[in-house]
Structures are given as structure tokens and as C-alpha cells.
Amino acid sequence: MTIETQNPAPREFDVRPILRSGGEPFQAIMEAVNGLRPAQALRLLAPFRPQPLFKVMEGRGFSYQAQEIQDGDWEILFMPKAAGASVEVSADADNPDSWPDPVENLDLTELDPPEPMVRILAAAERLQPGEVLFALLSREPIFLFPELSNRGHQWAGNFDETRTTFRIFVRIGDKGPKL
Fold first, then answer.
1. CA dihedral in degrees (71, 73, 74, 75; nearest 10)?
2. Residue 101, Cβ neighbours under 10 Å: how many?
3. How far is residue 37's CA from residue 67's CA, in Å, rounded to a whole number?
4. What pLDDT does 82 receive?
5. Residue 20's Cα: distance from chain center in Å?
6. pLDDT tens digits for range 146-179
7. I need a surface site. Which of 14, 26, 52, 129 has the fewest CB within 10 A?
8. Pairwise CA distance, residues 168 & 37, whole Å
9. What strand order describes the sheet that includes 154-159?
10. SS3 letters for the chain?
11. CB-based contacts of 125: which residues, under 8 Å, 6+ apart?
12. Regarding beta strands 154-159 and 88-89, do their DSSP bridges make them parallel or antiparallel, or are they unpaired?
């Protein structure tokens, strides 16, 4: 049995061969997601229920339906949520609506990792506590989030309506690393 969907047809991505060969499919999944058309879903086939991926995809504006299929494999349909994507915020962030306007804006959409992370962290070092930095990125900066938190900064971000650009606000903390 397969999950019923609406148009446009979902893009199918099977990570089982990648995992069988000892590879890590996360980057390939994110590339598949970045290649989706607006309102297009992603049908993912995996040898297990990819629980950690659910939160990542939820942060990118997708809901999901998961069902076990033959031989213990799983089919997960990630569907774009209607309306704008919810905003993810760091665990210690106060209400981002009360943050001041950004004092620095960066468009890093043309850069490949790790350059956007390097530039955001360098910009954060130049700013004063309480100031805000805004950046546009071509993908969700999942490795940047813990680094910002470790340095005492707060962040809030989400994908734009087209799910092609990740927008992030970084509020500069007291600059001391958290222990």
C-alpha cells in the first residue's frame, strides 16, 4: 500500500542503496528537498523509521506520514505545510519579535559550506551584545545552530515561502562560551 498524494507528484528518493553501501544519506536527502518544486512532496524510502529527520523536515516546513512497508522498510511522505513555515528558535531565545533590527545583513546564498557558517561566526565576533545579524542561506545551517548556542548567541530562522532560502537572525550574546 502507498500513501495517497495530490499534484504535483511527489519526488521519490530511495536512501536504501546509499545506506547499504555504508554511506550517509543526509546531504543527499537535503539536496533532494532543495530540488523540490513549490508544493511538491518528497516520498522517502528507508530501511528504518528515520525519527531524527522528522524534526529537521518539520523545521523546513514539512509535515509527514510514515508507514512500514514490506520487509521492515519504511515509506515516509514529507508534505509541505500550507501557509508560511514556522520559525525555529534557539532554546534560550526570548521572543524574536522583540529583538532590534539587524545591524548587519549577509546574503550567503551563493556560498558552499562551510563558508556561510564561517562568515556568520566572524560577523558575530564584530557585533556587540544585543545586536542582531540577519543572513540568507541556500540551506538550513544545522551545524551552525549548536555553535551559536555554545557561543552564547540566540537565533531564530526558517525557510522562505519557496523553501529555497533559509533566513536566520542571530542575536549576539555576551560572547562567553557556555560550559
1. -80
2. 9
3. 24
4. 65
5. 25
6. 999 999 999 998 887 777 889 999 999 986 554 4
7. 52
8. 22
9. 88-89, 154-159, 166-171, 132-137, 104-107
10. CCCCCCCCCCEEEECHHHHHCCCCCHHHHHHHHHCCCCCCCEEEEECCCCHHHHHHHHHCCEEEEEEECHHHCEEEEEEECCCCCCCEECCCCCCHHHCCCCCEEEECCCCCCCHHHHHHHHHHHHCCCCCEEEEEECCCCCCHHHHHHHCCCEEEEEECCCCCCEEEEEECCCCCCCC
11. 175
12. antiparallel
Cell for 155?
537565533
Is residue 40 very low, low, confident or very high in pLDDT (cuts 50, 70, 90)? confident
Q: Which three cell numbers stand for residue 95?
A: 521572543
Q: Please compute, for residue 122, the number of CA atoms within 13 A of its CA located in the half-sphere on the CB side.
A: 7
For the chain, the residue count is 179
Q: List CB contacts of 72: < 8 A, sequence separation 6 or more.
A: 47, 48
Alpha carbon distance 154, 177 (integer Å): 12
